[in-house]
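Could you join me in thinking about how sequence relates to backbone shape in a protein? We need material for that, and I hope you will provide a protein of your own picking. Label the sequence line and the structure token line clearly, so we can match residues to local backbone shapes. Would you write everything just below, so we can both look at the same thing?
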Amino acid sequence: MQKVTIHRDRVIIEYIGCDDPVVIPATLVRCSGEKRKLSPSPSDAALIKLIVRAHQANRALADPTNPTVEATATSMAVSTRYFCSLLRLAHLTPDITTAILDGRQPAHLNRQFLARINNLPIDWQGPREMLGFA
């Protein structure tokens, strides 16, 4: 290997004695603070886990053995505040949820960003704009 060049959307690897470089599509994404990683797939396992956990919270709330939000949060071993955040995420539009599961979310949208949003609009277009899907 002679040279590796990292771009926002690809990695180029040039080998000694070879005229054609290897180009690998990749996305530069923020991961835990200022660290960055290059991912050939923009899927974010932590973000997907958050979406799954949100739907688990929604199902748990529908369970008649959990009479209150507080009891349901306790049954899931999370705080009531976090549980309420999860409930909001369980009601993201289907196209946003699908995009996240497919790894097609905007690069800035990670688990920390989504978990901290507490003012998602209740209509379907508002979250699309707020999260960068519009």
Summary: The chain has a mean pLDDT of 83. Residues 43-134 form one domain. Residues 45-62 form the longest helix (18 residues). DSSP finds six helices and five strands in the chain.
